Amino acid sequence: MENYQTLLAAVTPTEGHADEVSATAPAVATREVFDPATGASIGLAPVHTTADLDAAVERAVAAQPAWAARSDDERRATLHRVADAIEAAAEPLAELLSREQGKPLNGPNARFEVQACANWLRATAETPLPTEVVVDDGETYAELHYRPVGVVGVISPWNWPMMIAIWQIGPALRMGNTVVAKPSEYTTLSGLALIAVMNQELPDGVLGVVAGAGDLGAALVARPEFGKIMFTGSTATGRRIIESSAGNLTRLTLELGGNDAGIVLPDVDPAAIAEGLFWGAFINTGQTCAAMKRLYVHDSVYDEVCEALRTVAAQMPMGVGLDERNVLGPLQNRMQFDVVDRLVETAKAGGARVLLGGEPDRAAVGNFYPTTLVADIDPHDPLVQEEQFGPALPIIRYTDLDEAIALANEVEVGLGASVWSADRDRAREVAVRLEAGTVWINSHGGVHPMIPFGGVKQSGYGLEFGVEGLKSVSVPQVLNG
């Protein structure tokens, strides 16, 4: 595939023409999509209807038995071919992603995300899922198998629109399910483009897609044909999904909001951990569910950690994603810009000290919010208590470790957390006291295709990745005898 325009043309319908990506309605309405960095028009995205959803679901239901009838080896081989197709289209996919989402091409951003899609598919294909013998005592013999759940509905977010979609789609396909996906309305073209490339290698109807706003997502989760819904997004939307799907007893995996805490113990070398702290908080310009969103630092190293982090942060270039020099980009949408701006202004009004940033150009065309570090902030300030989901990190001073742990645990969400220390054993002692689905030691936010990932409290439920992720898109069946 030569360039992103070729890719865009393949997924953009024109008024009065069929949408070839989902092959649903004879005519598809469109809306214009704009670059969050420049305001420039990127292209047209389809706006599907419930009739389009009906058709996509019908095709997925019809295709599922034949896909499930294929052997596990056949499905695994297909996923490898899909990964090959993504790699062949990697550069246009990355450019489209950068233009629509805003993230730079370089750093842990657009090119990284596209390659992660291929890598994750390969890992999903190679994850072993052997038959489990649960009893074999000479009198009783029982095996536990995992069968397809049927049709899986996937609703993916705008922050990592390709990679998170793959996290959901890949395991579902591996286990013999068909999928109907709905990309975020903020990153529709990226989602459509990825699925168009994947469908070069998948049988017809196995992976469908519909594009639209929240009302279309609500219609999707209410459909009785779905045996499973996978959603990554806000806690508020997660609650609505639970309510809408309850009548169908639909299985759910919900990866919801986070407000991850990092705790720095007094034995650290501030200069040695500064870059890790930075990327833990500011990966994808802070627009990551499991990014570090509040940092608790012991008083004895507080000033040194603040200065080391400020030095690293000040050197990280922010700008238009297509500029190869940049590693930070704009916020994807103005709504999120306003959230970050409000929280930082509230912190400033409350007496917090801004170490870096905090003064956006609100009249600028792009949604750029400067990299911002806020020190000496009250631990109950809204910037600490609410998920900012952007490039602003509050740094809270503590003297009593028990108090810091209590503050870290007092919020309603629990996706991830981290502990930073020169003593790994001491860090682990602190880690097990934190209420989070994952606790990293001397890093934050890294994921691995073989390590289960999921939240606690109001960060949702269900596990993704590895063997547990495959089981989550399956139904268990016991063979007894």
Structure description:
With 481 residues, the protein is α/β, with parallel strands linked by helices. It has two domains: 4-256 and 459-480, 3-Layer(aba) Sandwich (Aldehyde Dehydrogenase, Chain A, domain 1), CATH 3.40.605.10; 260-448, 3-Layer(aba) Sandwich (Aldehyde Dehydrogenase, Chain A, domain 2), CATH 3.40.309.10. 39% of the residues lie in helices and 21% in strands. The protein contains 16 helices and 20 strands. Strands 12-13-14-11-10-16-17 form a seven-stranded mixed sheet, with helices on both faces. Strands 7-6-5-8-9-19 form a six-stranded mixed sheet, with helices on both faces. A three-stranded antiparallel sheet has the order 3-4-20. Strand 1 and strand 2 (41-47) form a beta hairpin. Helix 1 (4-11) packs across helix 4, helix 4 (90-101) runs antiparallel to helix 7 (188-198) and helix 5 packs parallel to helix 6. The N and C termini lie far apart (53 Å). The relative contact order is 0.13. Mean pLDDT is 95; it is low at 15-25.
